[in-house]
Design a protein that fits this description.
single chain, alpha/beta, 8-stranded mixed sheet, 6-stranded mixed sheet, 15 helices, binds ligand BES, binds zinc ion
């Protein structure tokens, strides 16, 4: 899909679908109020002889968020159909309302296989949003909403889907002064969305087609394509000589070899060094502490943390934030077999600390122990780890919210702001020192789970904290939001969501 912006009037532009908007409670599209979005709906209304105003009354259109009204213009203006999108209450309006509105436009366009959509820039006028940010959000919403994972469908179905797909999304801009900003926003939106879609693809891949070696190759490809990114790969032999017994221990039950992958991006003049650490279990059966079979197929998503890091790195050469970024991925499969780790076993982690394995299904924290130790050795100013770590986090926060735990309020605040701006939800959970005892073992330094089922997400965080020393650190438990069993919203369809990529990119941009 081509997304672009140009100067022009909505009522003069040819389109299969023309998208305008209304805030909740507006009975007549404004004429005189300042603000170009409102004016734009008003001028389409006037070009249609007041049809929109009439429809608002006759169809009882309230303008609630997500409400839509679509009608044929029968040649009164060049656009074939007009879609009015409700933006909800003006006071609640934000960048995510723009993404949602873009998502709705794409959904409606798909219903009649529209090829060209022309859209108003939601919120840049009355909504009070900055035109660049609004354009970025519109672009993100449109690209993210149009995603489908069709790789394993037959060719006929894929061809059909392609034919029906929207080809052009054009943002019309009346104001010459803002056009450059809108174009910049579109470029940024494309970078953010493309990186997110890459992660969706990786998460949607089944484990039969996506094993640790594929994550390794993806990282190497990124480095080959971009001279700004370097990559180092530690294979099983090297991991053994390093003493990465956590990762090697979990990998023992699988036929597939484990890897520790180290990506590095270092722009000139960077003052801050950030390490991103990702869990890359390409399939989690639970190991000898085998999971029940119901929904086990979803455990192909257990590499989403690693995928998110690859997504972020794919965007860095284009985004060019002024911050040095290290990406550390620990990847293997968690399988039961004659060679697998057994409950009661002890592994020697890279940090030197020994870990007693009480449950082989709590494998994420064991491989991350080594990845965090490795990341810490790069002397970063901040470590952010991403992991589909616990089902307990889903119980606590539901499927759309990630749990955030850490040791540094300043970075936590920064991350929360970034996540809010991109419309991804995170919620802080505490790491109380009173619970720390739960991860101490009688016969080793640590055990991977406490004797209680309570505070499962927090216990995961407390275990990881043992491997970051005093480095400012945040652990994001993304078990819920990286996969949507049913669509989360108009621009987050079923399947892998790519959650986290846009938050991190936004976060990195702030340095
Ligand atoms: N990969 C799972 C966590 C998970 C659950 C991710 C649901 C995505 C959706 C993790 O390795 C795991 O199995 N955790 C256990 C920990 C328990 C044994 C303490 C869990 O959550 O049950
Ligand atoms: Zn597990
Ligand atoms: Zn897991």
């Amino acid at each position: 899909m081509k997304i672009s912006a140009k100067l022009g009037l909505l009522e003069k532009e040819k389109a299969d679908l023309l998208v305008v908007n209304l805030f909740e409670g507006v009975k007549k599209p404004p004429r005189l109020r300042s603000g170009q979005a409102a004016e734009a709906t008003g001028s389409v209304d006037r070009a249609l002889g007041g049809l929109i105003s009439k429809l608002i009354l006759s169809e009882n259109f309230q303008g609630e968020e997500g409400e839509t009204l679509i009608f044929h213009t029968h040649g009164q203006i060049p656009a074939q159909k007009v879609l009015i999108v409700g933006l909800g209450k003006e006071k609640d309006f934000n960048l995510d309302s723009v993404r949602q509105a873009a998502g709705i436009s794409l959904q409606k366009a798909a219903e009649f296989s529209a090829q060209k959509v022309v859209s108003i820039l939601h919120g840049a006028g009355v909504g009070g949003l900055n035109p660049q940010e609004s354009a970025q959000a519109l672009c993100e919403g449109a690209l993210l909403a149009s995603y489908r994972f069709l790789k394993y469908k037959n060719q006929k179905e894929r061809k059909e889907a392609f034919k029906k797909q929207l080809k052009e999304f054009l943002i019309l801009q009346k104001d010459k002064a803002d056009l450059a900003k809108v174009k910049k926003g579109i470029l940024q939106g494309q970078i953010f969305a493309k990186a997110t879609l890459l992660v969706r693809d990786l998460v949607n891949e089944p484990s039969s087609h996506y094993t640790p070696v594929h994550l390794k190759k993806e990282a190497q490809t990124l480095s080959k394509k971009n001279h700004q990114i370097s990559v180092k790969v530690f294979d099983q032999r090297k991991l053994k000589s390093m003493g990465a017994g956590g990762l090697l221990g979990v990998a023992k039950g699988s036929e597939e070899p484990a890897y520790l992958i180290h990506l590095h991006y270092k722009p000139q003049g960077a003052k801050t060094k950030i390490a991103l650490v990702g869990k890359g279990i390409t399939f989690d059966t639970g190991g000898i502490s085998l999971k029940p079979s119901e929904k086990m197929e979803q455990m192909k998503i257990d590499m989403a943390g690693a995928g998110t890091i690859l997504g972020v790195f794919s965007a860095l050469p284009k985004l060019r934030p002024k911050v040095e970024v290290h990406g550390v991925i620990a990847t293997c499969e968690n399988m039961p077999s004659g060679r697998a780790l057994k409950p009661g076993d002890i592994v020697h982690s890279l940090s030197g600390k020994t870990i007693e394995i009480f449950n082989t299904d709590a494998e994420g924290r064991v491989i991350l122990a080594d990845a965090l130790t490795y990341a810490q050795k790069q002397n970063p100013n901040f470590i952010l780890d991403l992991a589909t770590l616990t089902g307990a986090c889903l119980v606590a926060l539901g499927e759309q919210i990630a749990g955030a735990m850490g040791n540094n309020p300043e970075f936590m605040k920064k991350l929360q702001v970034a996540s809010k701006e991109v419309g991804e939800k995170i919620w802080e959970l505490p790491l109380p020192k009173e619970y720390q005892e739960g991860v101490k073992s009688d016969i080793a330094d640590l055990k991977n789970i406490p004797p209680t089922r309570f505070a499962g997400a927090i216990m995961g965080g407390l275990f990881l904290q043992e491997f970051v020393g005093k480095t400012p650190w945040i652990h994001l438990d993304i078990a819920g939001p990286v996969f949507a069993e049913k669509p989360f919203s108009t621009y987050i369809p079923q399947g892998g969501t790519g959650f986290g990529v846009r938050t991190i990119l936004r976060f990195l941009e702030k340095f």
